[in-house]
Specification:
The complex is a heterodimer of chains A (108) and B (877). Helix content of chain A is 55%, strand content 14%. Chain A is built from 4 helices and 2 strands, in the order αααββα. In chain A, strand 1 and strand 2 form a beta hairpin. Helix content of chain B is 52%, strand content 16%. In chain B, strand 1 and strand 2 form a beta hairpin. Classes of the chains: A alpha+beta (108), B alpha+beta (877). At the A-B interface, helix 2, helix 3 and strand 2 of A face helix 2, helix 3 and helix 4 of B.
């Protein structure tokens, strides 16, 4: 089954992968803002995450309690095998398109 | 102190998120908040927090989490079959453990529910009325209201003259039929008369309504004058199994009719009840003149206009046309007249209309069901109260169970539903008991109400479903208060065996419920006593005329002169007089409009036709003037009136009235006598203006002044003579006083109904009290033991245990006595103009009966408890 992967979804997946062990709500949002210049609302982020979980590209678990968050635990995310496949596929498509390009795409 | 995230935002978020897990999100938002605090002002940080909350609230993430939470097996809001099953298992265990209370509760509820079952079945059946017509949604009838002065009539009928105008002027009407419901005749079959009833209808009747014609052509059957369609059962009545179609039958005084069709018997659930349909074109042949009858609403009381419209949305046009017609006819009769449409499906159950049935058939207005519903509730609610009462009383025993459940994680909701389930199990058990009572009383109930032949109270799938639904709803009503009470218990207190915090308010509630039941029972007892007294009162009432030794024979069309000459041969007959009606029987007499010479208004007066002999035979007293002149009758010229008549027309004294001329039915009649008021109608009605007129053509009853030595032999002789005279009908005669007494039979059924309802109400309240007494006696056995050891007497202890209940009874009397005085007095004067009044003795008798029954119930338990050997109860300590 070929599942469509949205642009934001792809970004979130890649960010989760980049963050590794430290991927949770706040860090993902921060990373997206700093690295990709994408400032999105917390609602939009979690909706995207929920959809990714539904598609089986992400899995999550609850961490332990933390003092600075009023004792509330963090929910950590990790990219699944299917998730990896999906981003890899997206990358292949892009690479192929890059290599086929008749126009010089890299601008300096 | 450190700045906190906005509390309101957090609360709102948690509340709207409901059961969904949002801790991680809250944590994230907190983290953001503190981070923002480092770089921004606290205000900015708060605004950002609010923004985050709002963006999350409407996000897909929260919606998804909520949905998941609902499906989670660990959710409090999850509805699973297993937990419901568990509720019922626990409920049946607990009911089984307290078997005695279960039986008392179930018995009480069964009695309470039985009446409601009757009302439910009846209502459900009446709702199916006229559902079988294919065009039911497009059939309407014209209903009318007539207002003149203070008199206002809402009628189901309308003048038939409207039919032609509607049909010819409004294209939106597909078909119209006129119905005149007074076809009454006697068919002459093999030299005997068989009565036949029916309607005069237009041919369209058969195409508007879905009555199935078995033989004959629907299009032509009712075209020609003197055509008649018989129903299957009336054809069987007239001809047995012989084919009736196409035959000619002779109807006495109406001529020969051709049977042009045989109709399949109409189902019971229609508001038409007829044996035959006669072509409307017959009517002008029989009757001369077609007078426009707007003047008096009673004159079109038996006329109906039904129609089939093309589009039911276009009834507005018809209604506005009707109101135009109403205005026209209002001008003629100087009354406020109104014509409106009523949909076929709104007829039963429908609004209150006088002449609701108008000879058509059964009519059920909503008010009938409201009254039945109130009565059913009056019986049902006390039974529910009993349950509530007994359950709360046992709070102490069950508090531990609830405490433990709560400690183990039972939520308020779960305990609430556990109790509701328990009650529902009880009501479902009661339903079987209630059904038994329902089957027992069904027949009796039907015999007591009018139109019972049009009702079918058998169980159907729908009513069974309604019954179960009803049982569940009852369970909810009865179980609601205990469920709220128990689910709100504090587990710590409950486990520590402290009395529940709300026990005091529970006591208060329980007491008022008990008092309410006593009030109800007391009301029924007093009502029963008063109705019984009213019955005797009516039987012995002085009507103001002689009733004894008057034998009333229904002439059934026999010529009065012939009858007189034949029957005067008997030695026991002293004289014979004739009249159009029988005095003292009817609840309402036919009224006519009379006008006094010199006054502009016509006023309504009840009238009756009789000869001069009649007034003498009945011993009516003259205040002024004398009887009708003793000359052979050739035309009407005199009238005799009563005192109220003088009042109505403002004539100062009886003597002034003599010789005055009254204009009635286009004739001038001279008043020859004024009678002292007497009860011409039944005791239900007040005496109003009344007049005697003479006209032999109206005589329908012969009144024989008799003195029998052997009444049986005399009547047999009269019957023989009746046959010898060549009469084909059966002899119909009875003593006047017997006939009047028979008319008050309705009181026996009223006494029966009140008696039965009272019996139910009393048994319910006694059962409730029994449950309470059993409970208190059980819980106080140790106290009783100690008291006995300390020297208390058995009688003293019995008094101690019943004291509380006696107090409640006293309270009930304080409230019930004034209440019942007001209600019963009002009820009596409403239904009965001449009635007994409520006396101190009625009240006292009611009190004695209720206290007697109550004490009897209580003492079965208290005496037992008081006599237990204290050693047995104290040993176990």
């Amino acid at each position: 089954m070929k599942t469509y992967l949205g642009e934001l979804e792809e970004l979130v997946l890649l960010t989760v992968a980049a963050l590794g062990e430290e991927a949770y709500g706040v860090s993902i949002q921060q990373d997206l803002e700093n690295r990709c210049n994408r400032s999105i609302s917390i609602g939009a982020l979690h909706s995207t995450i929920t959809r990714l979980e539904e598609k089986g590209f992400l899995k999550s678990w609850l961490g332990g309690a933390t003092a600075e968050r009023g004792g509330r635990s963090k929910r950590f995310f990790e990219i699944t095998q299917a998730g990896k496949k999906a981003v890899a596929e997206a990358k292949t498509v892009r690479d192929e398109l890059w290599s086929l390009s008749k126009v010089k795409l890299s601008v300096r | 102190m450190k700045t906190q995230p906005p509390r309101l935002a957090r609360k709102l978020f948690k509340w709207l998120a409901g059961p969904a897990f949002v801790d991680d999100l809250l944590g994230d938002m907190d983290e953001w908040f503190y981070k923002n605090l480092e770089t921004h002002s606290p205000f900015r940080a708060r605004v950002k927090y609010w923004k985050q909350v709002l963006s999350l609230l409407f996000s897909y993430a929260i919606r998804k989490r909520k949905r998941q939470a609902q499906l989670s097996p660990f959710s409090q809001r999850a509805f699973s079959f297993a937990i419901v099953k568990n509720y019922f298992i626990v409920a049946s265990r607990s009911l089984n453990r307290h078997r005695y209370f279960t039986i008392v509760n179930a018995a009480g509820l069964a009695i309470g529910m039985s009446i409601s079952l009757l009302v439910i079945t009846m209502f459900a059946y009446v709702c199916t009325y006229d559902n079988f017509h294919v065009n039911k949604n497009r059939i309407f009838r014209v209903i009318s209201s007539h207002e003149k002065g203070v008199q206002k009539y809402d009628m189901a009928s309308a003048p038939i003259q409207l039919a032609d105008k509607l049909k010819s002027n409004l294209p939106g009407i597909e078909q119209v039929t006129r119905i005149t419901s007074n076809f009454r005749g006697e068919a002459l079959i093999n030299n005997s008369n068989v009565p036949v009833q029916g309607f005069y209808v237009d041919p369209e009747f058969l195409s508007i309504f879905s009555f199935e014609l078995l033989e004959g052509n629907a299009a032509t059957a009712l075209q020609k004058p003197k055509s008649i369609i018989l129903t299957q059962s009336s054809s069987k009545k007239l001809f047995g199994d012989e084919p009736a179609f196409g035959r000619i039958i002779e109807i006495v005084k109406k001529g020969n009719f051709e049977i042009t069709g045989i109709l399949k018997d109409p189902p019971r659930n229609t508001h038409f009840s007829f044996e035959s349909l006669v072509s409307y074109s017959t009517l002008p042949v029989l009757q001369t003149g077609d007078v426009i009858q707007y003047e008096n609403p009673f004159q079109y009381g038996l006329e109906f206009v039904y129609m089939l419209v093309r589009d039911k949305k276009q009834t507005g046009i018809i209604e506005s046309y009707l109101s135009k017609l109403a205005e026209e006819s209002g001008k003629i009769s100087e009354a406020k007249i109104n014509y409106t449409l009523q949909a076929l499906t709104d007829i039963n159950p429908g609004r209150d209309l006088s002449m609701l049935t108008g000879g058509l058939g059964a009519g059920w207005s909503y008010s009938v069901f409201i009254i039945f519903g109130i009565i059913a509730l009056l019986i049902l609610l006390p039974a529910c109260f009993n349950y509530t009462n007994i359950s709360i009383a046992r709070a102490l025993k069950r508090a531990k169970e609830i405490g433990l459940r709560k400690t183990m994680g039972g939520t308020r909701r779960q305990i609430f539903f556990q109790f509701i389930a328990e009650t529902t199990v009880v009501t479902l058990i009661s339903l079987t008991g209630a059904l038994l009572v329902f089957f027992l009383i069904r027949k009796e109930f039907l015999s007591m109400i009018a139109f019972s032949e049009t009702l079918d109270l058998s169980l159907t799938a729908i009513t069974t479903g309604l019954f179960i639904l009803f049982a569940i709803v009852t369970g909810f009503i009865a179980g609601f208060v205990p469920a709220v009470f128990f689910s709100g218990l504090n587990p710590v207190q409950a486990l520590k065996n402290q009395s529940p915090a709300k026990a005091f308010s529970g006591m208060w509630l329980r007491k008022s419920l008990t008092v309410f039941q006593f009030i109800l029972s007391f009301g029924f007892i007093v009502a029963l006593i008063v109705f019984a007294r009213q019955y005797r009162y009516s039987m012995n009432y002085d009507f103001g005329f002689r009733q004894e030794n008057i034998f009333d024979v229904n002439l059934q069309g026999v010529d009065p002169d012939l009858f007189a000459s034949e029957y005067s041969q008997f030695s026991f007959v002293h004289n014979i007089s004739f009249s159009s009606d029988v005095l003292g029987l009817h609840s309402s007499f036919g009224g006519t409009w009379m006008q006094m010479e010199g006054t502009p208004d016509s006023l309504q007066v009840s009238e009756m036709f009789c000869d001069r002999q009649y007034i003498e035979t009945l011993g009516l007293k003259f205040l002024a003037g004398s009887n009708f002149p003793d000359i052979p009758w050739n035309h009407e010229q005199s009238i005799i009136v009563n005192e109220r008549f003088l009042e109505l027309f403002g004539i100062p004294g009886p003597a002034d009235a003599i010789g005055k001329v009254v204009r009635v039915d286009r004739q001038d009649l001279q008043i020859t006598g004024v009678l002292k008021d007497f009860h011409y109608s039944s005791l239900r009605e007040s005496i109003k203006s009344f007049a005697f007129r003479t006209n032999p053509s109206q005589y329908r009853h012969a009144n024989l002044n008799v003195s029998f030595t052997d009444a049986y032999a005399g009547i047999t002789q009269m019957e023989k003579l009746w046959k010898k005279m060549g009469n084909t009908t059966a002899f119909k005669g009875d003593f006047l006083n017997e006939e009047i007494n028979m008319a008050y039979k309705s009181y026996t059924s009223l006494v029966k109904i009140t008696g039965f309802l009272g019996f139910l109400a009393i048994s319910i309240s006694l059962l409730g009290m029994l449950g309470m007494v059993v409970y208190t006696s059980e819980t106080r056995t140790k106290e009783v033991g100690i008291r006995k050891v300390m020297g208390a007497s058995a009688a003293g202890i019995a008094y101690l245990l019943s004291k509380d209940y006696l107090k409640l009874m006293a309270w009930a009397f304080v409230i019930a006595i004034p209440l019942s005085v007001i209600i019963i007095d009002k009820l009596l004067s409403m239904t009965q103009y001449y009635s007994v009044t409520l006396t101190v003795w009625d009240i006292l008798a009611g009190m004695v009966i209720l206290v007697g029954l109550g004490v009897l119930t209580i003492s079965t338990q208290t005496i037992k408890t008081a006599n237990i050997n204290p050693a047995e109860t104290l040993r176990s300590e």
